[in-house]
TrEMBL record:
Pfam families registered for this protein in UniProt: AA_permease_2
First-listed, main subcellular location of the protein, grouped into a coarse class: membrane
GO molecular function: L-amino acid transmembrane transporter activity
Full protein name: Cystine/glutamate transporter-like
Topological relation to the membrane, as annotated: Multi-pass membrane protein
Presence of keyword Transmembrane helix: yes
Keyword Iron part of the UniProt annotation: no
Record InterPro entries: AA/rel_permease1 (IPR002293), AminoAcid_Transporter (IPR050598)
Length: 491
């Protein structure tokens, strides 16, 4: 009797152990991102080239020192409002995918597909190209001063930076997370290195550049949205943690904590960095500088000035790494939902990384880098990005009223999403008037996804011969890349 009673217990233990081992060996994305990597992921993605490049765009379009500082502060508040909305969305819908998932859950498949379409046709390649070019410029230019660095060399170094980031994200999730933590500490050191001498000079009475700070002859209400676009570009990245919800440990606690801490830290740092810039440079001098941080270092940090371009380059690399870590997860989820080819929802059988989704971005970024001048791509990419962010928060408001009983572990006051959504739609609408060429092109590319959706997703009009050829090609690619479908549901 004693043996017969104990035997089932032993069997149960062995069954549980075998199930655990099977789950450990199964192909799926692991929850490996804790609170510190989450904070590092947000800060490391937000703080990239923007704070070292965007001050010129903010000042140019705002028209005065005082108003530009106000724009920086308001952009921080607006980004924090958006981040809090996404904290609610991320704890309400536990899938990865960020914007795509929230649009799918609240407004339906067409807006979700259009977000996926625009992200990989031009938003992510444009942003990654811009950041990688900034990386290449800061690496190369110190060796050619006072001459202009060769454009071809800048592009080659930029491509090497992109290649390094892609390799890291293909190799290991843990390595990509550790790289992000390390680069985040370096870039925060760079910001502190700028803030301290600027604030010390201000405390010692160097305030002449702040006299009549709001006086301006060039203030134009039609240009203000472009000032906000430059500022919001510098704050961009607060939503990337939501792309990897399925890989975050205890997301109901980690998401809100990481978002709140990161956005408050970044907002305070950004405003102080701009105050430091204006302490050492006049508005005209800042507008004439193509590398604001380097110009600042030449005046305030003569002893360590050569280190600033290196720190800025590493900062850009961190933002690039964060983008390549987060964005492929949106494509991964979109393919899993049937909105993109199934190959992009597959994971490397040993590395447990979404290899096809990461690799898909690589040639798109390289092509855009090779094409040449992309300085206007901030406005070009920002229109579509902020339109869909506004739609996601609008969807959140609608979902609240349609499904009041839906569990929401973290809930923000309704005023936050309402204010954020209205301001986003206002900026997006006014930008069509301010910069019709770039924003109109972005709008046209976004709309171009509608016929693609109806032809390939809603009702498949693809010829049977093409389908067979595509299936064969996907099968061979799956074998070559050693990838397989996810075997464990992670949401």
């Amino acid at each position: 009797m004693g043996v017969s009673k104990r035997a089932p217990a032993t069997d149960n233990v062995s069954d549980e152990g075998s199930k655990k081992n099977m789950k450990d060996d199964a192909v799926h994305l692991r929850r490996r991102i804790g609170l510190l990597p989450s904070i590092s992921f947000i800060i490391g993605t937000v703080v990239g080239s923007g704070i070292f490049v965007a001050p010129k765009g903010v000042l140019m379009n705002s028209g005065s020192v005082g108003l530009s500082l106000l724009v920086w502060a308001l952009c921080g508040v607006l980004s924090t409002f958006g981040a809090l909305c996404y904290a609610e969305l991320g704890t309400s819908f536990t899938k990865s995918g960020g914007h795509y998932t929230y649009l799918l859950e609240t407004l339906g498949p067409l807006p979700a597909f259009l977000r996926l379409w625009t992200e990989f046709i031009f938003i992510r390649p444009a942003v990654a190209s811009y950041v990688s070019l900034a990386f290449g410029r800061y690496v190369v230019e110190p060796f050619f001063l006072p001459c202009v660095a060769p454009t071809a060399l800048v592009k080659i170094v930029s491509m090497l930076g992109v290649t390094f980031v892609v390799a890291v994200n293909c190799w290991s999730v843990s390595m990509a997370a550790r790289t992000q933590v390390s680069l985040t500490f370096i870039k925060m050191f760079a910001l502190i290195l700028i803030i301290i001498p600027g604030i010390m000079a201000l405390a010692n009475g160097k305030t002449e550049n702040f006299q009549n700070a709001f006086d301006s002859d060039s203030l134009s209400l039609t240009k203000l949205p472009l000032a906000f676009y430059s500022g919001l570009y510098a704050y961009g990245g607060w939503f990337y943690l939501n792309f990897i919800t399925e890989e975050v440990i205890n997301p109901n606690r980690t998401l809100p904590l990481a978002i709140i801490f990161s956005m408050v830290t970044v907002t305070v740092c950004y405003v102080l960095v701009n105050v430091a810039y204006y302490t050492m440079m006049t508005a005209d001098e800042l507008l004439m500088s193509d590398a604001v941080a380097v110009t600042f270092a030449g005046r305030a940090l003569q002893g360590v000035a050569p280190a600033i371009p290196i720190l800025v380059a590493l900062s850009c690399l961190g933002a690039l790494n964060g983008g390549f870590f987060g964005s492929p997860r949106m494509l991964f989820v979109g393919a899993r939902e049937g909105h993109f080819p199934a190959i992009f929802s597959m994971i490397h059988i040993r590395r447990k990384t979404p290899l096809p989704a990461v690799l898909f971005l690589y040639p798109l970024v390289i092509i855009m880098l090779a094409r040449g001048e992309i300085f206007q791509l901030i406005n070009f990419a920002s229109f579509s990005r902020w339109l869909f962010i506004a739609l996601a928060t609008l969807g959140m408001i609608i979902h609240r009223y349609r499904f009041p009983e839906h569990p929401r572990p973290f809930k923000v006051p309704i005023a936050v999403p309402v204010v954020f959504t209205i301001v986003c739609f206002f900026i997006v609408g006014l930008s069509l008037y301010s910069d019709p060429w770039n924003t109109g092109g972005s709008c046209a590319l976004t709309i171009s996804g509608i016929p693609v959706y109806y032809l390939t997703v809603k009702k498949s009009y693809i010829p049977e011969r093409w389908k067979k050829a595509f299936y064969y090609f996907s099968q061979q690619l799956q074998i070559l890349l050693e990838v397989a479908q996810q075997e464990v549901q992670t949401y």
